[in-house]
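The protein record filed below.
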Amino acid sequence: MSFRIIVFAVASSMLMLSPVQGEEGQTGSASTGASAPSIMEERIRAYRESFDRKRAQAEERHEEAEERHEEAVARHESMRPAPPPQVAAQEKQLSARQQAMKKFREEQQAYFKKQQQEREALATKWREARQKYQEVRMETYLREREKRLANFEEQQEQMRNKAEDQHNYLVENQDEIMQRMLEQKVEIANRHEELRKQADERRKKMVAARAAMADMTPQEKMAYMQAHQQELVAVPEGMPARMPRGEARRPMPPWARQAPPVMPRAPRP
């Protein structure tokens, strides 16, 4: 309906412009001898009168059209049949269902909100318990660390006291300790001297035995070595049984380890 009104207004404006143009042409042909300002004023006045007249007519027609439109709408509504009872019941049922759905959504939102609040409260309690646990753990660690440091401090104090006692003992008995150490060193030197003499004596015996066996046959040498085995092979007291690494091995006596006799091979056929 609004589109019809717009089209009607455009047509009315076009109709209003055509008479004005005709009047302007007649006025120009009749008064050719008048001055230019008077002709322009006449044209403007005529145009304004014609425009006001056409606008009033257009407004009247527009009002009439609106009245006709309202009458047609009222007539159409009065002629519209009432909805059947089934449709009304369906509409009522649909409205009740919408209200139920709205109530269900509100209940769901309230339930989820309650669940969220419970989760937040549980998370808060968990954080508080975790923080308390961390505090207790840290306190226990610090106490244990303090105890260990106290034990270490006590051990170091005992070792310091022991070192001080040893120092004091050495200072008080340094003469006696020095004399005892000197005597021990003298005893050690005498012991080594005795062992040196024993080794020198055995060495001289070995030299004499080697000189005595110089002109002997192998059988005589074997018999001589067996007869003087205790003197020649026995290890002196304090001498290691084996030579240290890097030194020559002590030669074994000939009778200690002998190679097996070589058996002749049988001739091949």
User: Anything to note?
Assistant: Residues 112 and 118 are 10 Å apart (CA to CA). Confidence is low (pLDDT under 50) at residues 17-35, 254-264. The radius of gyration is 71 Å. The first helix runs from residue 2 to 30.
